Amino acid sequence: MDIVTAQEMYERDRVAMEAAGLDGKLLMENAGRAVTYDLLRHIQKEHAIVVLIGAGNNGGDGFVIARTLLNLGYDVEAWQVVPDTKITGDAEAHKKIFQASGHPYRLLKSSEDLNTSLGCADVCIDAMLGIGVKGRLKEPYAEIVRLCNEKSFVRLSVDLPSGVPADEGEEDFEAFQAHYTSIIDAPKQSVFLQSTRPYYGEWSVVEIGLPPQLLPDHRRRLWGAADVKRTLPERDAHSHKGSHGKGLIIGGSRLMPGSVAMTARAALRSGAGLIAVSTDPEAIPSISPYVQEATFVEGKDGGQVPVLEGYDGIAVGMGLGRTSVMVTVVEQLVHEKETPLLVDADGLYLIKGFLQELEKREAPTVLTPHPGEFAHLSGLSIKEILNSPFSHSKEFAEKHGVYLVLKGPSTIITGPDGEQRVNISGNAGLAKGGSGDVLSGILLSMMMQGEDVMNALSNGCFLHGSTADLLVQDEHAKIDLLASDVIEGLSRTFRTFSS
Ligand SMILES: NC(=O)C1=CN([C@@H]2O[C@H](COP(=O)(O)OP(=O)(O)OC[C@H]3O[C@@H](n4cnc5c(N)ncnc54)[C@H](OP(=O)(O)O)[C@@H]3O)[C@@H](O)[C@H]2O)[C@@H](O)CC1
Ligand SMILES: Nc1ncnc2c1ncn2[C@@H]1O[C@H](COP(=O)(O)OP(=O)(O)O)[C@@H](O)[C@H]1O
Ligand SMILES: [K+]
According to its UniProt record, which protein family does this protein belong to (predicted)? Predict the structure, then answer.
């Protein structure tokens, strides 16, 4: 499913109208009706409903929604919150159809009148502003939004919660706090940002009849279960352990043995053929009982710098520490151009001095930072990253020729050519030490088994998160879930996808 900016959404509508001949009024009818039937899941027949209608096309959707609900026999009060002169174009056409259907609307004159009406409502449908919002809300919207947010009714938004910007990069806003948002055609960037995501509440996307083949491809997609089903490599009946990748994991130290142990076990649970671990010899006794299938490699001259040849993929950084020996290891990895490389945790700190050289690697380089680590790598502040994760990820990945997995509740995976995928599986049970180590193991394993790196990374992120989601449905709560539980839960997720 495509993820769009406001501009890209207007472009999709324009293509539908100009290239496919879909009339704007028809699109609005489609949108309004699709949203109505979606919202009905949250409305009961005995509910008193208020529909708030704003000045633009989002308000036009509101007239369609109010008409459809009234035609279906629901108890609806339609409030136009701007003067008649503000309702123009397709929205005005739908206002006329609404009136021709014999339905009355109320015009906002004072906020007291509206407040009385809101006081009697069970459900409030916000069709005030959508992707056309610019800057902070002006009156009367700002006051209405404040009134609505204080009420105890169910708040449902059309396309976007009014006031929420569609695009990343906007910091200064005030918005309707929806319990549920019915998104028209495609999720906007703000669905995935830390600051704007909470305003949407739960959400889903309704289809409005745009012609898929004609729509521009912005190469920014939400990666879902259907994509995983379509692209997850099948295990060939005639395969042997060498067919599924021989991986090397460099990490762990005397005081941090657990991280590399989890990465190795997660890689094996995700299908890697062979896993070798290069770690501090003192850490081996605590790692080996946890991953009996792994082997251990000794560095050159008995030291900690391993031989890097002979692997299908290498992961470095988990629990590695930041000593000068490790700088040498990372430097050699950067110069070892032919093996796919994944860098996480301490590895990300150590690789900063070699960023300019990554472009020269022939095999894929994957960096998996959380926002704090990305701030260190990029020199940006965490706030800047959280405000504009799409553009900063893209710029960084293109500049350094790397795959970037920017982790968080919405994880953004960016390729060196700027293509982006977003994963939203997972839950706050993953917000714990070790979750990232498990993800690294899964990603290493996926990269060794599939040819397409973007698919491998997107599938790995999805499987990691959806395992956590499955686990909190029955066996665990978000509070007690451990990273090691996710490793053991992978079997269940893989069975779901291979059945
Ligand atoms: N064919 C299509 O395009 C389809 C579009 N569809 C629907 O249309 C929506 C987009 O419609 P849109 O472009 O009319 O924008 P929308 O969000 O309704 O608002 C525009 C109004 O907001 C006002 N305004 C702006 N900022 C403001 C502020 N800070 N504070 C106060 N007011 C502010 C602005 O005022 P102005 O700046 O012009 O004075 C203008 O009057 C989209 O989200 C979807 O729901 C569907 O029907 C499918 C087909
Ligand atoms: N609130 C959350 N919702 C969904 N996924 C989350 C959440 N918090 C963390 N995660 C996921 O958990 C992992 C945490 O990785 P990371 O920050 O590197 O953790 P650590 O370094 O502690 O192992 C990432 O895959 C991230 O996407
Ligand atoms: K809205």
Answer: Belongs to the NnrD/CARKD family. In the N-terminal section; belongs to the NnrE/AIBP family.
Q: In the predicted model, is pLDDT for residue 53 greater than 70?
A: yes
Q: In terms of domains, do 185 and 311 share one?
A: no
Same domain membership, residue 229 and residue 212: no
Q: Ligand 2 centroid to 371 CA: how many Å?
A: 10
In total, the chain counts a number of residues equal to 499
ipTM: 0.95
Specify the amino acid at residue 277. Answer: V
The encoded tokens of residue 387 equal: 């405000």
- What is the per-residue pLDDT across 17-38, written as a single tens digit (0 to 9) for each? 999 999 999 999 999 999 999 9
Domain, as residue range, for 282: 225-498
Annotated binding site: 57-61, 126, 130-136, 141, 159, 162, 319, 370, 407-411, 436-437
Task: Report the SS3 class of residue 4.
Answer: strand
Instruction: Please indicate, yes or no, whether residues 319 and 447 belong to a single structural domain of this protein.
Output: yes
Tell me the binding residues for AMP.
407-411, 436
CA nearest to 264, candidates 319, 227, 217, 188: 319
pLDDT at 236 over 90: no
CB 202: neighbour CB atoms within 10 A? 10
Neighbouring residues of 237: CB distance < 8 A, sequence distance ≥ 6 = none
Asked if residue 67 and residue 30 are part of one domain, the reply reads yes
What is the CATH classification number for the domain harbouring 39? 3.40.50.10260
**What pTM did the predictor assign?**
0.96
Work out the percent of the chain whose per-residue pLDDT is above 70.
99
Indicate the residue among 163, 183, 218 that finishes a domain. Answer: 218
Which of 218, 235, 269 terminates a domain? The answer is: 218
Residue with tokens 């009406």: 117
Question: What is the DSSP secondary-structure string of 313-331?
Answer: EEEE-TT----HHHHHHHH
Indicate whether 1 belongs to any domain.
Answer: no
Residue ranges lining ligand 2, Cβ < 6 Å: 345, 370, 407-409, 411, 426-428, 430-431, 433-437, 439, 464-465
- Cα-Cα-Cα-Cα torsion 154, 157, 158, 160, nearest 10 degrees, comes to -170
Pairing of strands 180-184, 411-414: unpaired
The pLDDT confidence band at residue 499, using thresholds 50, 70 and 90, is low
How far, in Å, CA of 137 to CA of 81, rounded?
13
Most ligand 2 atoms within 8 A of CB, residue of 260, 370, 404, 478 to mutate: 370
Distance 452 CA to ligand 2 centre (A): 24
